[in-house]
Write a structure and sequence with these properties.
- This protein is an all-alpha fold.
- It has one domain: Amino acid/polyamine transporter I, CATH 1.20.1740.
- Helix content is about 65%, strand content about 0%.
- It is globular, with a radius of gyration of 24 Å.
- Keywords: Amino-acid transport, Membrane, Transmembrane, Transmembrane helix, Transport.
- This is Amino acid permease/ SLC12A domain-containing protein.
């Protein structure tokens, strides 16, 4: 999907503008490139220390956590076997479209704030204000829900450990990583992502063995695809799966957030995005298929009172007569959950830091230390993360999980929608200003990106409609105020924040005029980056098989 353009004459690294005046233009462009995209400040820098391997594992690992390992039990019981498979395929198509759109934006503008910054740059600052603080709160909520799940998983082994003690272990295990430089964070997430990937592949092989009758206990009756189990609650069950699938598939957008801290974004960001898409479809969806085949929605294990055993992965291991493996899988899920909490603490701090840098928050949060950490934003994000995490230990962990997952799910959908809108808006701006963005050498673009962007946008609108239908006609129980707020709290907060910003700043324009948008500041020009050119040309000098091998080995 990448279109690599080279000039027909001269060096591939040259930008043939033709006269003396253009040298000034190139000089100006280089200064702009060094301005915002590199994020140089006298107070400190966001260091570009994340490598290709870090970014690929970070993006893959961020969306393999609670939603997949725990949330699939709800999707299976509410939707049914086939509904869950269709839901994951549909949602993963949206994620793939979003990643291509986000990659296009990130390469052109690998700036601090990423998908939070793009609305302010291309659409309206009020959207960034409202959206930014909403996302910051969601990062805190995700941290809390991962902590809640951590406690739930501990209870699989024993209920003797108090929930607050389990939560304390989770908090220390996740937040302590942020004491170290960003490169250490990247290495830690690489290690956990390898573990997640190995677990999914291992589970896939084990589930196939179980289905083939190669485990101590064979599957007695293959009932997963009986007519009553395909769609357990009809159309509204399928709608519920779509909504919950968004929560399970969220996290890959961290590629954009980490873009400002990645070495050679032109080369590394597209690789991370494309490898994530490929692995999502070939591993993630395949695991969902074998899971649906191995565990019937009507299985008593999915409806038991003991909350800690609600992970379908653990249930299948026990069902196959391998309790030792069930313990190992539970321990791995425990690590994966902590990893996702770690990623969202990372994102939350950077969102808060970005908002402060744009005068949308206290300047105190805009401090970056010598190690490249937004230290004050980290501390400020950590405090509510810890507080809410401990508050969630009160009451039923399963109820807390279900409520928070719906709140977070809608916000993840809104993130995707904003990425699509920002991409479409950028295309309008480039056309209105007769910019050369899509004709510059070494750019990342394709003629299919535009239609895929709009198709993704339509799919997201369908997801929001599904959220509304799920509120009006829930699978279990009746429509209620609590359900409405869990499903639409994000939109209400966004609207109130947006209107408040407009009134405070007395800015009543809905959109920045196309001709007034600044698409020079913070822009990255790959054809002016010798290191980027060298890496790209070295890659394309390899044979097709060797290029594929670089993806397989995360190079």
């Amino acid at each position: 999907m990448e279109k690599l353009q080279k000039e027909s004459s001269g060096s591939s690294s040259s930008f043939n503008l033709g006269d003396l005046e253009t040298k000034k233009v190139v000089s100006s462009i280089q200064e702009s490139q060094d301005d915002e995209s590199i994020q140089s400040t006298q107070k400190g820098d966001f260091k570009r220390t994340l490598t290709a391997r870090h970014l690929q594992f970070l993006s893959m690992g961020a969306n393999v956590g609670t939603g997949l390992f725990i949330g699939t039990s709800t999707q299976l019981t509410e939707g049914g076997s086939l509904a869950m498979i269709l839901g994951f395929i549909f949602v993963n198509f949206i994620v793939a479209s979003m990643l291509m759109s986000l990659t296009e934006l990130t390469i052109m503008f690998p700036i601090h704030g990423s998908y939070i910054a793009y609305p302010a740059k291309f659409i309206d600052p009020a959207i960034t204000f409202a959206f930014g603080y909403q996302l910051w709160v969601v990062c805190i909520l995700v941290f809390a829900i991962e902590g809640t799940t951590f406690c739930l998983l501990i209870e699989y082994w024993t209920v003797a450990i108090p929930k607050p003690a389990s939560m304390a272990i989770f908090v220390l295990a996740t937040l302590s990583l942020h004491i170290f430089p960003v490169s250490f964070f990247g290495k830690a997430e690489t290690a956990t992502a390898i573990l997640k990937l190995a677990t999914l592949i291992g589970f896939f092989i084990f589930a196939i063995t179980y289905l083939a009758g190669g485990t101590p206990v064979q599957q007695e009756d293959f009932t997963s695809f009986d007519s009553g189990n395909l769609f357990t609650n009809g159309f509204f069950g399928l709608v519920s799966v779509f909504v919950l699938g968004a929560f399970a598939s969220g996290g890959t957008e961290i590629i954009g957030m980490a873009g400002a801290e990645t070495v050679n974004p032109r080369f590394n960001v597209p690789r991370a995005a494309k490898s994530t898409v490929a692995r999502m479809f070939f591993i993630y969806v395949c695991v969902i298929v074998v899971l649906a085949c191995s565990l019937s929605p009507s299985s008593p294990a999915l409806h038991q009172e003991k909350e800690a055993e609600s992970s379908p992965f653990v249930i299948i291991c026990k069902q196959a007569g391998v309790p030792v493996l069930a313990n190992i899988v539970n321990a791995i899920i425990l690590i994966c959950v902590a990893s996702v909490g770690n990623c969202y603490a990372f994102s939350g701090a950077r969102i808060l830091s970005f908002l402060a840098s744009k005068n949308m928050g206290l300047k105190y949060f805009d401090k970056v230390d010598k190690k490249g950490r937004p230290i004050t934003a980290l501390i400020t994000t950590a405090i509510p993360c810890i507080a809410l995490a401990f508050i969630t230990t009160i009451g039923s962990t399963k109820v807390v999980f279900d409520w928070l997952s719906r709140v977070i799910g809608l916000t993840i959908i809104l993130i995707w929608f904003m990425v699509f809108i920002a991409n479409a808006r950028l295309r309008q701006i480039i056309k209105a200003q007769n910019d050369t963005a899509f004709t510059e050498p070494y750019g990342f673009w394709h003629k299919w990106f535009a239609p895929v962007n709009y198709i993704g946008m339509v799919c997201v609108i369908l997801l929001i409609i599904c959220q509304l239908l799920n509120t009006i006609h829930p699978v279990h129980g009746k429509a209620s105020v609590s359900l409405f707020f869990s499903n639409f709290l994000g939109i209400l907060v966004f609207i109130v924040s947006y209107i408040g910003y407009k009134i405070y700043h007395k800015d009543y324009k809905l959109l920045i005029p196309l001709e007034e948008v600044d698409i020079k500041t913070g822009r990255y020009y790959p054809h002016l980056d010798d290191e980027s050119i060298s890496q790209i040309e070295d890659y394309y000098s390899k044979s097709l098989l060797k290029r594929i091998w670089t993806y397989a080995t995360f190079q």
